[in-house]
Predict the 3D structure of the following.
Amino acid sequence: MTDAVQTANVAEAGTDSAVAIAVVRTSTIEKILRVVIPVTMVALAIGLWQLHITVNQVPRYIMPAPGDVIMALYSDWDTLSPSLLVTLRITFLALGIALVGGVGLAIILVQSKWIELAIFPFAVILQVTPMIAIAPLLIIYMPDTQSALLTCAFVVAFFPILSNMVAGLKSVDHNLLNLFELYGANRWQTLIYLKLPASLPYFAAGLRIGGGLSLIAAVVAEFAAGSAGKGSGLAFRLLESGYRLNYPRLYAALILLMITGVAIFAATSLIAWLLLHRWHESAMKREN
Amino acid sequence: MRNVSKLFSNGTLALKDMTLDVHRGEFLSLLGPSGCGKSTALRIIAGLGGASSGSIDWPSSRINARGLPEGDVGFVFQEPTLMPWATVFDNVYLPLRLTGVSKSAARPRIMETLDSVGLADFERSYPRELSGGMKMRVSIARALVTKPRLLLMDEPFAALDEITRQKLNDDVLRLWRESGITVIFVTHSVFESAFLSNRIVVMRARPGQVCADLSIETSAIRDANYRTSEEYRATTDRVSRALQDAIMLGAQGK
């Protein structure tokens, strides 16, 4: 179904003041600029970084040049890649559990205001307590460091998803609820056909926040936990490189974290777009 | 409905001992100033929020657990009330889906209903792509898809411009004539009620009660010519006077 066909249909049907909203096509030049401008800006920033090193003759043990970092990324890949995998695993596992748990608990919470009243204090207390403050406790209580890190990342990613989903499930159009009641819909049908689709924009917001936070939490928790040795993530590599004054490797680890963060942001944005672009304001192109 | 009263939890008496007999095949308008309980009455008939006292008696024998005749009532809200994430087709499919009809089995019926409101070409459009009038048509199609015997409409065209509203009025009349359905139409427009109905029940506020029951008989065909006819003018005068009386009574609070 193309826009052209849509518009033709409107003309054909000729019903009242009907005008289907035509989607404005971005011109080719704008499409190219959309890619070129951000890429140029990043390249420019790297250029300035190199210029600063060259002009001011900054020694390598204070700040490495971009070339040194790329070299480190290449030569230390055997050290960095297992750590990257550890961090990625904690991040995505935490996000996955947070998604299932957040959506699941939200559905239970909105079933009855009594359940909500009973559970919400714990949700709020856990949310407002700084995670880094409870990380040392988790290290003690959890059987191993990995599960402690996972718990930390989970706790942080869980609440934005939970609170967004609760808001979403409650924000359903009242008339639509009446309509479902009129046609004798049961609780399950109302959930599947009405409440869950209606809360998709909120879910998307929760996913984007939770995705970013789970990476941050995975790193911060590792700083707090002070893991070491083989099974350690990128945060440990950052600390280790710092102690050893191996700044090119530290920068390399940092860049891997940045790329991971950007990738998570891109992925969650893409999921949000896929879920919403057909119908929701937040994901639509506008004519004016 | 018999002696129906509705007392809101804030102590407002929205309806007081309202009794109304609706005859099969009638186009009945409930007309009155805002706050006269006409929408409340409609919602009670639809089973949305029960009455504080009194009862609704249905001629039908098939009454479901909620006291409504099964699949026999369609409701059109003030707003189109469509699901923005679903296509026009899926929106109209909803009442059938909730009663467990499969999509393929429902398709002919949905397309037929969409055709009757002039939207057969838009089954795959999303609500945001439609104008206000078209969204209302989808809403009407959704109410009609179960082939109800009673159609309840709650100020459905209040938010539309005059031209779109007249067009939809023509269409509603045509659908009513073709299907022989009973319609209860809530409005605060004298002209709309006089054009559409063969019976107008005027209501007053504080408390909400029936205050006049007018029968609108005409041999003329209700079309564009009828809108400018002397007969139509006389009818609207009569309805306007009845409404004036109702407003006076409501203001005095007697």
